[in-house]
């Protein structure tokens, strides 16, 4: 049986939790810890669509396939 429902809403989450990005070094004077990274090249003066950024996570339709009814 395939089951469709709404996933749990997680609210506004950062790039690490939302997209599984890796974080920066936590020691040795680094000030780059949980940021999403570069926004892209200078030339187009915009951020390209699809860039993995922080935002609202969860609360979307999800389907789990091949569940067995007990």
Automatic annotation (TrEMBL):
GO cellular component terms given for this protein: cytosolic large ribosomal subunit
Domain of life, source organism: Bacteria
Region (Disordered) location: 1-44
An MF annotation (GO) of this entry: structural constituent of ribosome
A GO biological process held by the record: translation
Keyword Ribosomal protein appears in the UniProt entry: yes
SUPFAM superfamilies: Translation proteins
Protein's UniProt keywords contain Thylakoid: no
Keywords noted in UniProt: Ribonucleoprotein, Ribosomal protein, RNA-binding, rRNA-binding
Family: Belongs to the universal ribosomal protein uL3 family.
Identification of the protein by name: Large ribosomal subunit protein uL3
Provenance organism: Shouchella clausii (Alkalihalobacillus clausii)
